[in-house]
């Protein structure tokens, strides 16, 4: 499933256990979205409230996609973005916890590749896969001031709740056109 973007071809593939380290990289991008280093890699891995998004990847129920640059040197497919879903128990919730049957979305694109539609493509593809696997809703926490909130709301996410410094958004895959088969 390759699509042409302004700066070269980008493909999307399933995330596997071998992508765990790259997911940490992308989680770091997501938490440091403003360009300010709020977290280091070591902090993300050490802090239970952040490491739970990647620890033990890929466990049962995890679903993720990796965006790859198909024009890498020597034909290498270089990972440039990721979107993944993970469910959490009520006793150990993530930032956007709504219910145990509502997986939380994590998504990031490496800085040099932002603004090319890669995140939107990942999100559309992941929503389709999630719907195919029987997921009804997905949630996401977005920090106040993060311009990505505009993208999420344009794709059908709605506000579920407000916390200090962040908004929890939810997407209902049963009613949203995101992830629906093309007609």
Automatic annotation (TrEMBL):
It comes from the Bacteria. Residues 10-174 form the N-acetyltransferase domain. GO terms for molecular function: acyltransferase activity, transferring groups other than amino-acyl groups. PANTHER family: L-AMINO ACID N-ACETYLTRANSFERASE. This is GNAT family N-acetyltransferase.
